[in-house]
Design a protein that fits this description.
metal-binding, Oxoglu/Fe-dep_dioxygenase_dom, 28% strand, 10-stranded antiparallel sheet, Glutaredoxin, Jelly Rolls
Length: 372
Amino acid sequence: MANLLLPGDQAPWFHAPALSGNPRYAFDTAAGRLILMLFAGPAAHPALAPALRLLAEHRGLFDDRYACFFGVSTDPHDVLEGTVEQQLPGIRWFLDHDGAVSRLYGALDDGMSETNYRPHWLLLDPTLRVCGRFPISAGDQAIAALQAQIAAPDIYSAAPVLVVPRVFEPALCRRLIELYEAKGGEDSGFMREENGLTVERVDHHHKRRSDYHIEDDSLREQLRARLARFLLPQIKRALGWQATRIERWMVACYDGDNGGGHFRAHRDNTTKGTAHRKFACTINLNAGEYDGGDLCFPEFGPATYRAPTGGAVIFSCSLLHEAQPVTRGKRYAFLPFLYDEDGARLRETNLQFLAASATSQPQPTITTDAPA
């Protein structure tokens, strides 16, 4: 029999169709708030009626800010008969018609029979770790546990990020900004897995940014030398990891006009074409010349992060993070990804999974001792 999750377990990540929503909803992007899950199986089963009534009675708890609800339904008739429905904000249902999500969480052992299903409640914290598991008959205890977590004092651990000042000098920062202004930027997309391929998509609701890719080999060498001399030793000292490769030589611009440049909560290594990425690097080029635009890490509370001009914020590509909307001015940044030789081999292996529009060129090493 599959094992049910226990308090302290990390909830598995998955993609699944959401009722009246994304056909491939990435569950891990819901982190950053409390999540109450109901593994219902066939939600029309009479045993589920009290649980659904309890959910309706406490509708106000689920606002997508402090808490949200995800139900898991395995029976297509639940949708056809209106037994389950999306209610935004806060209430969503996964359509687990093949049982994959239920099996992943131990609610289903084999086949799709009702007798093999173990309906239950699961309460997750903002980092998607299990706070509690409750039998289907103990919904009142699950709701009480959720209410207690909402009412508990806010205690957030600092996000595991590294801030390193003085990587680029002010004159180099200004030069990169002027280069962007002279050349202009192109609309920036994001990577998504579709039908087994990593493809690039543009959606201004999710991300609004323009990028200029640096082609000048001499300038690239100057940037590489500064990273090798001023940044990589600090990463190795603080994180115990040696970067040897860089992906992207790019100046990005988040513009406060047109709704505000932003990039909603995401992770940077969740597709085959991006799995090699180890750490993200944001080097601010004009930290005091814009409002908004800071980095935040929803799994670790509301704190925001902004390095000084020429300084870097370094964080694992597996962390959920968001570039908040710029509300005034323009935010310029140099935005490479760092990886190592193991990552280089993985990248080479996964080139076959890159769609033609997303194919990128091999990247150079960054650890030789060239002068700055």
